[in-house]
Specification:
The chain has a 5-stranded antiparallel β-sheet. Strands 3-1-2-4 form a 4-stranded mixed β-sheet. The radius of gyration is 22 Å and the shape is globular. Helix 7 (129-147) crosses helix 9 (164-175). By secondary structure, it is of the alpha+beta class. The protein has helices at 5-13, 54-59, 78-81, 85-94, 97-110, 114-125, 129-147, 152-158, 164-175, 179-185, 209-218, 266-276, 283-290, 297-302, 314-323, 329-343, 361-364, 376-390, 401-409, 416-427, 438-447, 452-458, 466-474; strands spanning 24-27, 32-34, 48-51, 63-64, 196-202, 225-228, 231-238, 241-250, 253-260, 345-346, 356-357. The chain is built from 23 helices and 11 strands.
């Protein structure tokens, strides 16, 4: 979109927050870059330049606006709508892969050469993977500076910088303030605990939290997830350790409290929370498309901004999807809870009732199938999945959606419902669809849509947002997944 000068100018002049994260506005006279919705008086169009990423604006010599904080705007929805190389790379960079594995590790995960990855990412974003990771490190540093009392030396290492000098230079260059000045300007009191952070996760309005939090809580695994004091809480398996997050819907943002065993995991934890709640979606584009169907239009009007509840761990959700085959939600939770107690890693949660991390595929590889209270065919399906995950099947942020679908379909016991459930919740495909799902069948009967074949045919007009249409169809039923839990 940044190439459409007139459209970008109109968005800036209207201070349209829907375009935050789609592009960034740089002002030639002030050498500052902003989000489109910046509250200051818009500059003259002749002084505007537009960039596809904060990193590209920084590389061009512009610094972040102190008013609108463009580095903290919602991410571009494009990277969660597509499955091409650049989109996969962006999801992995957000997950912290460049910081932990370097550009070579990023390229290896994507299955391309370093040169191909750098070339395609630069062409799309105006900056390479290293510059994008640097911009993310700067935002991580800002968060830690403003929300913790960590000494700057420790903070620099936690944010991913190799030296205190690089940390100081980067912060000054990006924010035009020293780390000490940033801390002095911070509003509110920083956390007294080095590992506890309170963040705001922005999103594009509107947002309907009912199905989002209702689904997560209704299907939550005891010990791994809970609803407490008006917040959804869960444990996280992260690159350097574990974490516990509490997520609460607020006006204009999601309140996020993170407790991390290692502060280096902040970027990965934040990225996974955003994916879990689908916070980078463009709800206006989704709702406009779905509302063209006269049967869906009233559902969209009644609850605009529905999101797709996703997952913080693709492998975890795949295991849970198999446990949920042909059983009730309650039975699936019971099966999962037994696995957690037997094979999960214990964690300490002084603030609540969380007890374990969900078992990793490696931990489940030693699973004795005779201990599973389920049909023999489903045991075989679960063991085949665990073997594939332990062997390298990628269902994470950077996965190839087509290859993952093909690999899952080849496993015994994996039909369209299981594959599309994983595609929707774990892979994040916005067009995943389950025409044979019981909830969809109920909605189809209520709305007069016909059988699964008729629903599948009608759904062609809902592309590429059929996963969101699923949320609206499920809402026609009286189930806890459609309701915001009571505080």
């Amino acid at each position: 979109m940044h190439d459409d000068f007139e459209r970008c100018v109109r968005a800036v002049q209207a201070k349209d927050a829907r375009f935050d994260g789609w592009f960034y506005t740089a002002v030639l006279t002030t050498k500052i870059y902003c989000r489109p919705s910046c509250p200051v008086v818009p500059p003259k169009p002749r002084n505007m330049r537009f960039y596809p990423s904060a990193a590209a604006a920084q590389q061009a010599g512009f610094r972040a606006c102190k008013r609108c904080r463009p580095d903290a705007s919602p991410g571009s929805p494009l990277w969660n709508e597509r499955a091409d190389l650049v989109a996969r790379a962006m999801r992995l960079i957000a997950d912290g892969v460049v910081d932990t594995e370097g550009v070579r590790g990023l390229a290896a995960r994507l299955g391309y050469s370093v040169r191909q990855v750098e070339r395609q990412v630069f062409a799309a974003l105006g900056a390479g993977p290293l510059a994008l990771a640097r911009a993310q490190r700067a935002q991580t540093a800002r968060t830690l500076i403003e929300t913790t009392t960590l000494p700057m030396t420790e903070l620099a290492l936690a944010a991913g910088f190799g030296s205190i000098r690089t940390f100081n230079d980067t912060v000054r260059e990006v924010f035009a303030l020293s780390p000490t000045q940033l801390r002095q300007r911070a509003k509110g009191k920083p956390s007294a605990t080095a590992g506890a952070l309170v963040l705001r996760l922005p999103y594009r309005r509107p947002l309907c939290p009912d199905n989002l939090f209702g689904h997560l809580v209704a299907t939550g695994v005891p010990g791994v997830e809970e609803w407490r004091d008006g917040a959804y809480r869960r444990t996280l398996r992260l690159p350097h350790g574990h974490g516990i997050v509490a997520l609460r819907p607020e006006d204009g943002h999601i309140a996020c409290r993170l407790t991390l065993a290692d502060l280096r995991d902040l970027p990965a934890a934040t990225s996974r929370c955003r994916r879990l709640l689908d916070l980078d979606a463009d709800p206006v584009a989704v709702d406009d498309q779905l509302a063209t169907d006269p049967l869906l239009a009233p559902l969209v009007a009644a609850a605009p901004g529905r999101r797709v509840p996703r997952t913080a761990d693709g492998a975890e959700f795949a295991v849970r999807a198999v446990l949920g085959q042909q059983v009730s939600t309650a039975a699936a939770r019971t099966h999962a809870a037994r696995l957690v107690v037997a094979h999960g890693e214990p964690v300490d949660d002084p603030e609540g009732g969380l007890t374990h991390l969900f078992p990793s595929p490696e931990a489940l590889a030693s699973l004795d199938p005779e201990t599973l209270a389920m049909p023999r065919s489903r045991r075989r399906t679960l063991l085949a999945l665990v073997e594939a995950l332990a062997g390298g099947l990628d269902l994470g942020a950077g996965s190839d959606w087509g290859a993952a679908r093909a690999a899952l379909t080849a496993l015994p016991g994996f039909g369209p419902w299981t594959v599309e459930s994983i595609a929707m919740r774990a892979l994040g495909d916005p067009d995943a669809f389950l025409p044979t799902d019981l909830g969809i069948k109920y909605a189809a009967e209520t709305l007069g849509l016909g059988g699964p074949a008729a629903v599948a045919a009608r759904s062609e007009a809902w592309r590429p947002w059929r996963a969101y249409a699923t949320q609206h169809l499920w809402a026609t039923g009286d189930h806890a997944i459609n309701r915001m839990p009571a505080a």
